[in-house]
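Progress against Task 2.4 (sequence-to-structure conversion) is shown through the following example record, which the project officer requested during the mid-term review.
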Amino acid sequence: MTVTETGTSTGTVAARIARPDMCLVVQERTRPTGRGEYTISEVATYTGLSAHTLRWYERIGLMPNVDRSHTGQRRYDDRDLDWLDLVGKLRLTGMPVADMVRYAELVRVGKETVAERERLLTAHREDVRKRIAELQSTLAVLDYKIDVYADVRRASERA
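Structure tokens generated for the chain above:
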């Protein structure tokens, strides 16, 4: 199974799960239109996160250095939205917040942390693969039980 992210000229981002027998849209969002500067409410709508969560991300260092207008209002840019897209994907994989904050710190430090970032993501990828295997095993049990019940139902309909 492959997960891909696609974009369009309208700014729509869709994460897709590609399998030989299907292609499902998992999530589709359209970036706010504008000048590359977005309000916290526009970013909240785009990401599905609350303004409170976005401010919390700032406080804990997951979303540092958000620009402010001359009146002190937060102004997010396209790089911030790209970062939040990544954070959202890391959240979906179950990465602990502490690991996401650590990753953000490493990114801010720069190129000398590339090896450590790679190790962190590689270890997390292994955790995700284990969870996927567990879910596939669970899905197989569900499929089996559904097939059993469907067979029983069909047999009773024939009788």
